[in-house]
């Protein structure tokens, strides 16, 4: 009745932006990500006879309140699927995802939790079922089941049974790098979940965003297949800017960027004008992720670290999917 | 055969963004501006018998090349309308519009030039005809014929005869202030004319921009009529952000902003969160214009001057329309 799993976080190159169903976490559009080796969560789950409720420890700290309820509600679905609605677990989870890096630890967290819980309660699941299960905890987490390049198919069914991740290319397909630029001070004024909802409901640019996704996806998958870095970078950066532009047309308008975010975007574009193939992408927050090829490592690191307001840079390579440990 | 005129520049609160006819300078959408007393051009025009070509002095410097040809082509239309195709003029124009302030001196420049030229060549024109004439030199210049709040009606005719400015409220209707924030270094990487064209042709968000204008216009005109500063500011700022968002969805995407632009936007929003009614608007460049009421003058000036990268702040009040001097 015990198991442990490890899952990496991922960065979307084609963004997940907007839900068609808030409670089932079903997206308006397909998205595509790269799983990253530098950031991960390990989670051990043990179902115990004497427990009358789950106990959840995150980084050795007992968690209570809303965060605890989100985890226990997540386990409820798995307990019920396993026919063991009264089985409760002790969960120990460790995040190797610094919050300051602007990655949602929920992605690696729920992927590792789903895998460890299903195995501990002896519920046989394939990766597709695991991806769906994970999606109920956090949308983008469903992509962390697989390593390398991963697409989340939005699906069309009302029950979400066809909304899951599929692998596009494994981690060893292509050694590209992602530098997570950590800002000295990053306050997230608008939560991603609220910003997403406000954009879907009020932004007059949102429908055109959704319509733009199929072309982006087809082109970036072609770029990944042919290891065409310029193509992948151009599409990822444009997709990111198009996503953030939807928030400027929301009512009221808002932006996840800070002035340092903008400085980093400028620095990346300046490097590119100087002939360095490098691109950025930004999730629903002020932090910037920079995409480049291994031979540019030193140029990228030194340039980024020289920008005022940049605290640190952490580099990732393509990472593996969820695994049992 | 001589006359002199003075015209002020203007700042758009509902942006002119995109042409439906490049050669006649016909816009895709109505726009609305405030004429500003702080920035103006004075122009003297004298038709002389001995001249075989126009001579154009700007700030006491003889102008040649493309800038000269733009002016002489502009005079060609007026000469022909006056039935004097062989009359040439000496023109002395003085700009009181610092380039660094990010205002197009073309707005005040062509308005003053049209008025002085028509009078010097004895072509009787009313203000509507003067606005159309001015529009051929520079689109937004057609609004500088009038003082105060001005709307440029896009018109629907192919020949542009119904595309001109109309006065909404005179300069003395309402004492609001506009601070032009001058950046220490402002390079305009994408020219406004080219950026406008690229956006119209490639941005998937552009149609929704055009569709959004009628609601903005109706609301801001109501706000102006009732001197509702909050309403006018909210609409102007949202309209500006919606315009700039179209460029992020262009192909390739681009932005007129710089990191200091973003810092100023943040400072304005921070002031607002602290209870100060203040809003920003930004044209096709990195400079920011800040809207506020007279009683906030000191707060606004000191806050703006304290932002790194801000060189100076120049304050305007509502200005008068074109006049003969």
TrEMBL record, chains A, B:
Cellular component aspect of the GO annotation: cytosol
Sorted UniProt keywords: ATP-binding, Lipid biosynthesis, Lipid metabolism, Lyase, Nucleotide-binding
Keyword flag ATP-binding: yes
InterPro entries reported in the protein's UniProt record: GHMP_kinase_C_sf (IPR036554), Mev_decarb (IPR005935), Mev_diP_decarb (IPR029765), MVD-like_N (IPR053859), Mvd1_C (IPR041431), Ribosomal_Su5_D2-typ_SF (IPR020568), Ribsml_uS5_D2-typ_fold_subgr (IPR014721)
Single GO molecular function: diphosphomevalonate decarboxylase activity
Gene3D superfamilies xrefs: 3.30.230.10, GHMP kinase, C-terminal domain
Sequence ranges assigned to domain Diphosphomevalonate decarboxylase-like N-terminal in this UniProt record: 7-165
Span of domain Mvd1 C-terminal: 181-299
Enzyme Commission identifier(s): 4.1.1.33
Any matching Pfam family: MDD_C
SUPFAM superfamilies in the record: GHMP Kinase, C-terminal domain, Ribosomal protein S5 domain 2-like
One GO term of the biological process aspect: isopentenyl diphosphate biosynthetic process, mevalonate pathway
Keyword Nucleotide-binding among UniProt keywords: yes
UniProt cross-references to PANTHER family, sorted A to Z: DIPHOSPHOMEVALONATE DECARBOXYLASE
Family per record: Belongs to the diphosphomevalonate decarboxylase family.
Protein name per the record: diphosphomevalonate decarboxylase
Organism of provenance: Lentibacillus halodurans
């Amino acid at each position: 009745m015990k198991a442990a799993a490890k899952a990496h976080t991922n960065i979307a190159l084609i963004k997940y932006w907007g839900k068609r169903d808030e409670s089932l976490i079903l997206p308006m559009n397909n998205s595509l990500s790269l799983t990253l080796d530098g950031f991960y969560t390990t989670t051990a789950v043990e179902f115990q006879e004497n427990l009358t409720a789950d106990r959840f420890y995150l980084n050795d700290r007992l968690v209570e309140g809303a965060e605890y309820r989100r985890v226990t509600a997540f386990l409820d679905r798995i307990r019920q699927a396993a026919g063991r609605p009264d089985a409760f677990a002790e969960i120990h989870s460790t995040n190797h995802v610094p919050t300051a890096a602007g990655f949602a630890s929920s992605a690696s967290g729920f992927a590792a939790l789903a895998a460890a819980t299903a195995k501990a309660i002896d519920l046989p699941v394939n990766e597709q079922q695991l991806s769906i299960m994970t999606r109920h905890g956090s949308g983008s987490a469903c992509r962390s089941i697989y390593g390398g390049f991963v697409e989340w198919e939005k699906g069309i069914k009302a029950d979400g049974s066809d909304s899951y991740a599929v692998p596009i290319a494994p981690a060893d397909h292509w050694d590209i790098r992602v530098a997570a630029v950590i800002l000295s001070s990053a306050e997230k004024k608008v939560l991603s979940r609220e910003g997403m909802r406000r954009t879907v409901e009020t932004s007059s640019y949102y429908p055109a965003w959704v319509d733009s996704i199929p072309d982006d996806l087809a082109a970036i998958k072609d770029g990944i297949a042919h290891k065409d870095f310029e193509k992948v970078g151009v599409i990822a950066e444009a997709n990111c800017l198009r996503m953030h532009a939807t928030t400027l047309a929301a009512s009221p308008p808002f932006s996840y960027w800070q002035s340092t975010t903008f400085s980093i975007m400028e620095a990346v574009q300046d490097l590119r004008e100087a002939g360095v193939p490098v691109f950025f992408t930004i999730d629903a927050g002020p932090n910037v992720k920079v995409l480049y090829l291994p031979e540019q490592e030193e140029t990228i690191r030194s340039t980024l670290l020289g920008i005022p307001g940049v605290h640190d840079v952490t580099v990732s390579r393509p990472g593996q999917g969820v695994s049992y440990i």
